[in-house]
Amino acid sequence: xxxIITAVVxxxxxxxxxxxxxxxxxxxxxxxxxxxAEKIRECxxxxxxxxxxxxxxxxxxxxxxxxxxxxxxxxxxxxxEVSAQIAEITGLSAGEVKPMAAVVLCxxxxxxxxxxxxxxxxxxxxxxxxxxxxxxxxxxxxxxMGDCVEACPYDAIQLCDGVARINPLxxxxxxxxxxxxxxxxxxxxxxxxxxxAVLCNNHxxxxxxxxxxxxxxxxxxxCVKVCQFDAVKVVNYCAEVDxxxxxxxxxxxxxxxxxxxxxxxxx
Amino acid sequence: xxxxxxxxxxxxxxxxxxxxxxxxxxxxxxSKKLNTAVGMSVAVIFVMALSTAVTYxxxxxxxxxxxxxxxxxxxxxxxxxxxxxxVEIILKxxxxxxxxxxxxxxxxxxxxxxxxxxxxxxxxxxxxxxxTGFAQSMVNAVGxxxxxxxxxxxxxxxxxxxxxxxxxxxxxxxxxxxxxxxLVSLSFQGFTGVVEGIFG
Lengths: 267, 200
What we know:
The complex is a heterodimer of chains A (267) and B (200). Chain A has 267 residues and is of the alpha+beta class. Chain A contains ten helices and eight strands. Chain A has a two-stranded antiparallel sheet. A two-stranded antiparallel ribbon of chain A has the order 2-3. In chain A, a hairpin with a 2-residue loop joins strand 6 (232-235) and strand 7. The N and C termini of chain A lie far apart (78 Å). With 200 residues, chain B is an all-alpha fold. In chain B, 74% of the residues lie in helices and 0% in strands. Chain B has helices spanning 2-13, 24-29, 34-63, 72-94, 96-102, 105-108, 113-124, 130-163, 174-188, 194-199. In chain B, helix 3 packs across helix 7 and helix 4 crosses helix 7 (113-124). Chain B is globular, with a radius of gyration of 18 Å. At the A-B interface, helix 1 of A face helix 3 and helix 4 of B.
């Protein structure tokens, strides 16, 4: 009996000492929280998306507060408005956040893209993409299981006919969907500006692409020849548009035999 | 000379991760990048040394005289957890730079089996004899920590190379990592007997 009591007493005493020590230490060594960082944190949208390049809203607020960064325009979801608020708190200059929205660069919906297998596994793009690159013949395009739909904190994404589509009015350019897409076909584009976008990522040779999808870029170079601004180039059998050079004239769109280039004006 | 033998044994032949298979969770979890692997390992060395320094007197002065050795596991875990929390609070106050550097790893390894393992194995190995025992325990703890560092750094290097390899799709990610871990562990079996051979 005594041995049980000793055991209980020993563990209890050690536990109590440890607990007391911790309680006292947390009071004695308390670190005052950074009030400026707290204030900035309240302005930020709180999506913790990481679009600013920091670990989350807390990280960005901390970095702004201790002078690690002076750029107030890093928050995409918050936009220029939040930048102005941060500038007011920190005394830094407000920056302009170029409004952007995410676009799924794929037109491989069920009518265009052919399928090679009937996928019956877990409904997740990441899982499906591991099985021969996904159920569609084209291994570059949208898998259509909606990983990005789940990832979007603003409910801006929907699946339409086997392809994800993003509502630019709801999109806050947080890049969560960009990170969630196993094919990496979601890109950010500037809002309110007409730009040419290549709605395809197929890097197979044209002959193969034609078999895989009706709307696939076959790398025919017509868009490159017709562009007067040197904004389009073909890399690995697939066209790419430089948004900085593109003026949205639409010449490439008219020249494309597959309808793979479209002039998009978001918002 | 004996101390050196203990140190080498702890680092190479009795490597905590690769021979004793303790602390596999951080080994697989944090070895993706070299700098996080090093950060984690430094924190482990620190916590191992600290917890050995504290649990040794508790074991010798309280548990052994009262015949309570069977309470070692629970008492040690309690003490280590409280201690690491305390260290975290103090670090946050006085050395914020080190606190930032250790980051999440410090609380993470509080209840890691490698840390508990090292204090229990010290007793199993018979390092319980007064000041010599204390010195032996400390050397073994630091050696185990360095062994952890060696394993983590080596494996981080392996994994960084694996990233850019063309691995069959069904082996990508965890499967290839586990196979690589097995091979690294196998290579460490080559050290078996080396220390005994040198120090006789």
